[in-house]
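#data-curation
PF: Archiving a pair of folding outputs for the training set. Convention for this channel: one message per protein, sequence first, structure tokens after, nothing in between. First:
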Amino acid sequence: MPTMVDQKRSALASALLALIALSGPSLSEEQPRTAVEADRPSDFQPTTPADDRPALPLLTPSEPTPPGTDLQGLEPKPAAPAETAPASTPAVTPHPAPRRLGPRSEDKRLSQGLSWDYCGPKPGTTEMTPTAPFGADAQPPTDITADRVSYDQDADLISLLGDVEILQEGRRFESDRSSYRRSNGDIKASGNIYLELPGIRLVGDAASYNLETQKGSITKPGYRMSGNANLRGEAEQAWMLSEQQSRYRDIIYTTCPPGNTDWSIAARELELDQASGIGIARHARIRFADVPLLYTPYLRFPIDGRRRSGMLIPTFGSSEETGTDISLPYYWNIAPNMDATIIPRYMSTRGLMLGGQFRHLSSFQHLEIDGEILPHDQKAENEGVRGAYRIKQGGWLGSRWSSSVDYAAVSDDQYLQDFGNRLDVTSVRNLSQRADVRYRGDGWGLIGRLQQFQTVDASIPPEDRPYGQLPHIEFNVDPKTWNKLAELDFDAQYDYFDHNNAVHGSRVVALPSLRAPLRRSFGYLIPRARLYYTGYDLTGQEEGAPDQLSHLIPSVDVDGKLIFEREVNWLGTHALQTLEPRLYYVLTPYVDQADNPLFDTTALDFSFSSLFRPNRFTGYDRIGDENRLTLGLTSRTIANRSGDQLLRTSIGQVYYFAQPRVQLDGNTDSTESDISSSVAGELSARLHSDWTATASLQWNPNETEQPWEKQVLQLRYAPDANHLINLAYRYNLGNQESEEYEDTDLSFKLPLGSNVKLVGRWLYSMLNDETVEAFAGIEVGRCCWRLRLLGQQIKRSATDPASTSIMLQLELAGLGSFGNQIDKLLERGIYGYQPD
């Protein structure tokens, strides 16, 4: 069962991003994938961009419960005579909060014995674990030590002087002088105050605290939270309302480690509630690099990773299709297992669109519904109401039944072109609409499927659009072993292929097979026999062609491999080298299938792995006649100590004893007269501990003008997470002009010092002599913040001129990410890139 990404957002994120957008250069929307990548199939995503939308938090599979109330102003009720906090903040202009953290927050006692492995909330943490106060019948003992001790029996008051230390299970209190009232647990202290509680430490000048209620106050405190969140700061006054709640006056708060205060929140008042995971600041100022970025009279923000309702980070963009484009998403935490995101989207040239997402997670299914609607398109008034939606579901009932749904639709063919903002969305030609039901029996399985497509590319003729499968039923039996010698396998399918403008009808497929594998440590020999049965009942056949067809086609193949080994020295490493010759022979007689329609059949892409396939076509509308032998050779070099593969090379070629006659177009005259195929080769090598190389080649010895049909050469340098260089050359001759390309690709991530990194990519088309995509930028940051600045040039299509953009992203640990989602672009564009 898939999980959903956990990420928090706050009102601060919205305000800060708005400030950046107004004060800085215009930020472009997220760019599409390159033209080369556009040819790859991609699922439709509703046009609210998935990469631009903040990742939503994790849902908990449980029964729905009412959402918790928001944290209100906390009313401190410390035990007398502890000082109490004011009930509310006076409605007057606050005096200036301190600008920078002072020495109190750097007190060594706050961090002694504690690590700072992360900044802000601990990765993967969804809530704080509260520590309940001691009950009256479970009060632990209290140990008190000091240089001088006096006791007032009448007042039951202990006075302590010099190196005072009071210990109680999991709690420590230190001071120069202190008094302790035994009757109610009240402590008053002054001088070098140090208070340690589960999850928080404080130092200060004077303090009052109650050991029984865990309430008190500290004057001029410095504090440090640890455990599920690393953060620190100092204040003029602090009140401990409970072990999970505290309030501060004139405070500075940061998630940066000691010795580093690159960003901070300075506030007149701050309330932290670890139980609810919420912080509330009043009259707050956000500072970054000692530069004020934002003032707000009220700020509510998360201090852990729990889901909560609130505004998400808005997105800003501009394009010729939509004009100024602004989205203001709101996240609604309905229940622990249910949430929704409501996304108003304003486009200056088209109008106001309303989008949304609903998610539900239960013990038997997960459900996600995305949709958007534009009631009136100002730029295309004749289109009427426009919109799109997608439904994704996965369910299970017991251990045998399961279901899945993936259904996408748009209102018109131009919808994705008008509202999509990535090439992988705008280049989609067919939207899948599929629903599956599966049953898993004891040694067998059954699949029922309904699938059709909405074609959104008007240039595709109606007769060439994909078939619907209404229904597809598939039955398969797990391989059965007989007497440890033979294995019997059986698969069967029934499909009704639906189409309004082409031949349509039903097809039955049955595929029994029998093999007798002989496996040894030095290799294997696997002979196999199979029988293809296909039967058709068709409507709309051409005149003279039969409506009912059936074929029974036998096929045999033999697959054999030997493995030879020897010890070698590979660049100073003791290793094992193998030599693995492989023979594969397949024999399938010719059967005329020219009258068969092409429901789901295409030619296999030629590669090293395809040399060992029994049929050169996908699907079952064409069963290729075969009388061929494949010769393959693979060699591996494997390190003895680690087991890592240091080198792998493979080469193979097919030899034809008879020319194939079955063709996709029904023509039985083979267009090829060569007795052998192209040579396919692969190579993967670890040249050094930091360098790896891969290659994939296809060479046709029967051609003299252009013998090289495919070439992919890649070199990668990756000694650690901060150093990364990728070099690649890709060439494909293709079977037609639209499939031909020749590109070079360079991408990198390199450090300049400890806190600065350079990132970039240059994808260049040698065939068209132009840059397809190029970007370069800089990453600056530490544990608690990261700033990315990136410039990009990209071609959206072969005919349009390249567009340029400048993007900015600021991440503050514990608050969120503001600006363009540059980290997503870098993950897509730089192979192996991972955000710090």
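PF: Second:
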Amino acid sequence: MLTTGAPIPYWQVTRLDEAEYNVADMPMEGEMDSTFFLTKDKNFIPHTYPCRTAYIEERRGKELAEQDLPDWAEARNVLPFGSPFVDLSGFWFRATKVRGWARTAVKAEHSGTARLRLGICGAARAYVNGRAVAWLSPATRNAMDDVEFDAELTEGHNEIAVQFEDLAERDAVIRIALTWLDGPSAAASHTFPASDDLVAGVEAAIEGMSLDRKCYDGQDIHLQLPVPFPEDVKGSVRVAGHFMSHDHDDVDVEIPRGATQVRIASSSAFPADYRYFDFSLSCGRFTAQARLGAEITWRSATGPAPERQQDRISEALNWIARHAETDTETALACAAVGDADALARAEKIITTALPGIENCFDCADFALVPLLWTRIVYADRLPAALVARIDAATLDFRFWMDEPGNDVQWYFSENHALLFHTSAYLAGDLLPEAHFRRSGRSGREQSRVGYKRLVEWFDHFEKAEMAEFNSATYFPIDLKGMTALFALAPDAEIRKRAGAAIVQLVTMVAHSAHHGVITGAQGRSYEHSLCVADTLELTGLARLLWGQGQYGAHVNCLAQVALALRDHGLEFPDLAEIANWEREDTAQEWTFWQGENAFCKLYHYKTSETAMGSAALYRWQDWGYQETLIQARIGREASASLFINHPGEIVQSGFGRPSFWGGSASVPRVQQYRDLAVVRFDGVAPQPNFTHAWFPTPVFDEWRVDGNRALARSGRGAMVIQASGPLQLMSQGGSAGHELRLAGRQGIWVVRLGQTDDLAGFSDDHLLELAETTDGCLVVEDATYGTVQFRRDGKVIAEGRTLDPMTWTLEGNRSEIPL
């Protein structure tokens, strides 16, 4: 029965009616805001675009006009899977008004007045049994508001419909929440065209299903069904990358009644990438959807890297040209390779990409930079008509927010600002006499404006480097802009500063690399950048530069780095020993800070068999965004990793920021000393009521979960985890065999890495019992380090040393510690 605060979770949703929401072209005021994500207001991101201002004027505080209920025949059935709301979130590259209807039901034991709460971001009107009863129109981007209302229920089935609309800009949170507060005895029901028993059977089957691996290297992909479907199932699976991906594959699937495992396809049929598997499954008259994710690696097919760097450069360019996704970075590699097949693919990719640039889609700047490189260097390898279209798109592009436009391109983050200014600078130099429509400038003038802004950008970088610290997603975007400037800038000053910035970022990557895989706290992260190893672009960079790692199909900078090395004189210091740390008798400790006003202090420690990085004294107990505050690896298996966070939403593979894996709803207190770390969460409602760790048991050589402890070994690398309560290894659902959960929003995780062949003995040596003093100091007695004090002021004291994050520098300090 429904109790106070219980969600009403079973929904049907009509097909969304989507229409571009256009306002008159106009400039915006503003400048780069490197710390835009450091919000105190539950992840509400600042900066309002003209389209949002217009929508607020049109909709805020104004009722949606009453409408007749829709035809529900084609409505999509949405099962909750633990979520308290129906989530229609996604990514829209232009401002889009989204309208639709959703409905659910309540079964009352007798008639009476119910008190309900409706939550929405945009605008909504609620109908109970066909009668309009409540409305709200906050028109707030990605932040839910709610209204309470009374509704007269009849005995038995009561249908509650919600008419809704919202303005979707880029990453858009579109959610509908209906909560029971009070009323007659009642139960949540549904409006599905199926019996309760069939719905319950399908829900149990989908909620329990998982892929048989989270990382495939040529194996067949099987769907595991610990709870079989009650009837035969027919359906389809769309296999695609993340929201910036352009390619997908569709697979039909049939699941016999009672089956516990079904083959989907061979993993070798899909690109080397983290892929999402979107299922649409029909069981009898009932159809439902689900999403699972897994990494597809081509490790075995690709093999080890060539010894010589010039051979690795050639390998990288050819691999990208033949196998990477449809992206202008791939087109650049194709043009550089230059054979007939590669040039045909380059033409096809550019033709596909141009509409997004011509219409100023969000993230069009990501596509424009490598396209300009291709146009500047390889125009003679492209058809003349295509070159003319590239030039026309360039002249019509909006290069900064002070130019008039009607788009929702994100200008404010460091990576986007760099790419906009790089594009303006290079495009103006390419077409010096042409007229740039939006700015009204000549190309020569446009280039000079871009130059001035790049000088300011590098001034900021050289003082603060990256607010999106260590981000495996955004470092490649930064390198995209920097390498383009190094290779193509007409001014020696810009080229010199870009070269120095490239070396600095790559040096950071080398310090946090562990045998080809990046490990460390990240300022912004996603599921597809955390639950992976081989296909991360920085892993491909490690292969190119230091000979360890693999390639992934989604590339942003790798072709440009290869070309800068091959054709433009880019040189790096010898970082291979640091990146591929093999010294068994010595560890490396590295401390530094990043971001404006040194807002993030970072610590990293690695041995030949372990690596762990964390953020020190970072926003403890604040609401989080996309930060991952601790990450670790053991052994030589690329996928043998660990990270710990507080999920931002219950649904896996969703679009939240933070999401289930990407980021942390509450920012934990994290402190680390060498191979030892403590992670303390202190979350609040309505954040999910558990914290969790990525713990990929299939890739470990041995592992065990017992009560409050979890152990794992990969090669000679080992980890012991001690939690403040019982740990649950998930055995069903999308994270089966890969997720440890600790119940409650408040919880403590203690992590100890080390080198051993005897996991049980290592565990016995490291009990990881935690004591807390009256002044908030957390104390661990460690078998090797002795007493380790994690003080409330951020200092860590052990082995006669004091680590004080407030003394760390932007340049960083690298120490070698004997083992």
